[in-house]
Design goal:
mainly alpha, Rossmann fold, Glutamyl-tRNA Synthetase, domain 2, 4 domains, two-stranded parallel sheet, 19 helices, 11 strands, 9% strand, elongated, binds glutamic acid
Length: 477
């Protein structure tokens, strides 16, 4: 049988990291088995609907590579893939479930429901309408009385199933209430629609968050009542922001799009999300989507929550940058490079090679190269550095000589400049690091910069480098 998994997000805002992880695992599981991965939009809760969020779901999945084989915007044989377009189907199946004894019409108004509140304010429906006769029901419907359809959960016994991550799960039916399946406006609840859709769409493996672990027995009651085969269940551990708090879009925690905007390498985001709750057998953590597909295994999924670690994600992003070709780096970092003060003023390729091994996320680029444009009066004490064998006195003495040597360099590039300064240090019998330190302070006015003295001089160009050295000679007096 062909494996079919689905991602079933509700369009309630940004696609958060937890949602994308559920999608990713569904994708990996299906792709590894030559199966299909389906996108279904669960928009029956109109009160939580956020305009534009369906598009965000499409865009995020395409952009991240977690692409579906069937879905609202790509079609497929099991559509429609948007729940609000399947209203008639739910009504038909809800009526069928009533006939089968798995559900019943309920005409209780809000006042009666409110009167069922217990001392803690919780309402539990008391099966009041379960015993209405067929005639009574027909008369009420014909009279236009509003109604809902409720699930008829047994009062005794328990429901068990085997979850592939959490093992055997049993829930007593007395702990499950007769929840609403079809609302008075004809819209299904999640509790009903997920069952109907997963069955009609031929879903073989249901992969979703742990919050559904204990409600699954009530879904199984429906599969059983319809005489349908239950899917295999794979529930996933939560993702936490820290030991106490779940990572959640309701708390405004970052989404995939936020991380992309902050300059993280896209592949690293997906790679990292895969590791949130799953560990590969090998020690390799940096994996492409294809490698993740090849290596993904249910045994590697943890039962316990995983904590989102931004430091690790940054590290992974940096690893991707290091291994990226220069062309790819250039194309990807362009929006961030453009924001730097140095942009357009220096050779772009040189700027890029200066930063490529020095940033973990693209947005760090401006801060790494802005120094090129921030040359102003600086603290002369920067020359005082015993470790580098440098002092103001030495700087005063050698800077004019450095200037002279550099003025004579015709082939202005890092390696030539480096050789020229090393030769000078030999000639003057001064430590090479002192010459390089003094040069870098003289042309940047900064203690720390991306790139050494000659790399920076190369980028600045001959005129600017000599101009700055002149300035520093004056400053030293
Ligand atoms: N619409 C549900 C959610 O966003 C889907 C749960 C499921 O995958 O069954 O949580």
């Amino acid at each position: 049988m062909k494996v079919r998994t689905r991602f079933a997000p509700s369009p309630t805002g940004y696609l958060h990291i937890g949602g994308l992880r559920t999608a990713l695992y569904g994708y990996l599981f299906a792709k590894q088995r030559g199966g299909d991965f389906i996108l279904r939009i669960e928009d029956t809760d109109t009160t939580r609907y956020v305009d534009g969020s369906v598009q965000i779901i499409y865009d995020t999945m395409r952009d991240s590579g977690v692409m579906y084989d069937e879905g609202p915007d790509v079609g497929g044989d099991y559509g429609p893939y948007v729940q609000s377009e399947r209203k008639d189907l739910y009504k038909e199946y809800a009526e069928k479930l009533v006939e089968l004894g798995g559900a019943y019409y309920c005409f209780c108004d809000s006042e009666r429901i409110a009167s069922l509140k217990d001392e803690n304010g919780n309402v539990r429906y008391d099966k009041h309408c379960l015993n209405l006769s067929k005639e009574e029901i027909k008369a009420k419907i014909d009279a236009g009385e509003p109604y809902v359809i409720r699930q008829n959960v047994p009062l005794e016994g328990s429901g068990s199933y085997h979850d592939l991550v959490y093992g055997d799960i049993t829930v007593d039916y007395k702990d499950i209430e007769d929840g609403i399946l079809l609302k008075s406006d004809g819209m299904p609840t999640y509790n009903f629609a997920n069952v109907i859709d997963d069955h009609l769409m031929g879903i073989t493996h249901v992969i979703r968050g742990i919050e559904y672990l204990s409600s699954t027995p009530k879904y199984n009651l429906m599969y059983d009542a319809f005489g349908w085969e239950r899917p295999v269940y794979i529930h996933l551990p939560p993702i936490m922001k820290d030991a106490q708090h779940k990572l959640s879009k309701r708390n405004g925690d970052a989404s995939y799009a936020d991380f992309v905007e902050k300059g993280y390498v896209k592949q690293s985001i997906i790679n990292y999300i895969a590791l949130l709750g799953w560990s590969p057998k090998s020690n390799t953590e940096k994996m492409s989507l294809q490698e993740l597909t090849d290596n993904f295994s249910l045994e590697g999924i943890s039962k316990s929550p995983s904590i989102f670690d931004d430091v690790k994600l940054r590290w992974l992003s940096g690893e991707y940058i290091k291994e990226m070709s220069m062309e790819e780096f250039k194309a990807n970092c362009y929006p961030f490079l453009k924001d730097s003060k140095a942009y357009g003023k220096y050779d772009e390729d040189k700027l890029l090679s200066l930063v490529k091994t020095r940033v973990q996320i693209y947005s760090e680029i401006p801060s790494k190269i802005d120094f090129l444009e921030e040359f102003t009066a600086y603290d002369l004490n920067l020359y005082e550095n015993s470790k580098q064998k440098s002092s103001i006195a030495v700087a005063k003495d050698v800077l004019p000589k450095i200037k002279e040597v550099l003025s004579n360099v015709t082939d202005w590039q890092n390696s030539t400049l480096f050789t020229a300064l090393v030769d000078l240090s030999t000639k003057l019998e001064i430590k090479k690091q002192a010459i390089l330190w003094i040069t870098r302070i003289a042309i940047t006015g900064k203690e720390a910069t991306a790139g050494g003295a000659t790399e920076v001089a190369d980028i600045l160009g001959k005129d600017k480098t000599l101009e700055r050295i002149d300035y520093s000679i004056n400053l030293l007096g």
